[in-house]
Amino acid sequence: LKLADNLDTLSAAAAKLREDMAPYYKEVREMWLKDTESLRQELTKDLEEVKEKIRPFLDQFSTKWTEELEQYRQRLAPVAQELKELTKQKVELMQEKLTPVAEEVRDRLRGHVEELRKNLAPYSSELRQKLSQKLEEIREKGIPQAAEYQAKVVEQLSNLREKVTPLVQDFKERLTPYAENLKTRFIALLDDLR
Questions:
Q1: Alpha carbons 4 and 33: distance in angstroms, whole number
Q2: Is 116 in contact with 61 (CB distance < 8 Å)?
Q3: What sign has the CA pseudo-torsion 45, 51, 56, 57?
Q4: 2-84 and 88-141 are packed helices; what angle lies between their axes, rounded to 10 degrees?
Q5: pLDDT digits (tens, 9 = 90+) for 83-95
Q6: Which residue segment(s) compose the domain that 7 sits in?
Q7: In the chain, how many domains are there?
Q8: 3-state helix, strand, coil in the chain (%, to 5)
Q9: What is the model's pTM?
């Protein structure tokens, strides 16, 4: 029963600690968001610029692919009509007709994707370079108020240690007699078994 009480006390203390830490966490989080806002805005702006640059390529890809799909659909319309009237014997013939078309569609799509990849490569490199540059700036300059964050974290850890140490010590002191009793009984049981 004492052990259960101790566990309840420890749980209550942990809940209280979590409640006490919430405002500090919120404060540090708000500071972080405020300090990184300009960086987020710059990255969003860079992404928008790259998006605008690549939009024509994506539109061109979409237009080409839509036109080709329409052509294939028109080419396959008579085949689809035939499929409705097929006997089992004609299924193999139909498969032979469809296989080259499917392969052609796959090859054309692969070509378009490769062309799109080639067109987008410079923008991908540009975006990667800008991102690396921003990260390098962060490394060099550090995030504003980083020392303040560190101080707050150290302070919170100290507070946590101060609050938890007495509870753990108390828990340990109360548990020690039970552990000793259990150990003695276990040794006695082993002796009996021998």
A1: 42
A2: yes
A3: positive
A4: 140
A5: 777 666 677 777 7
A6: 1-193
A7: 1
A8: 95, 0, 5
A9: 0.42
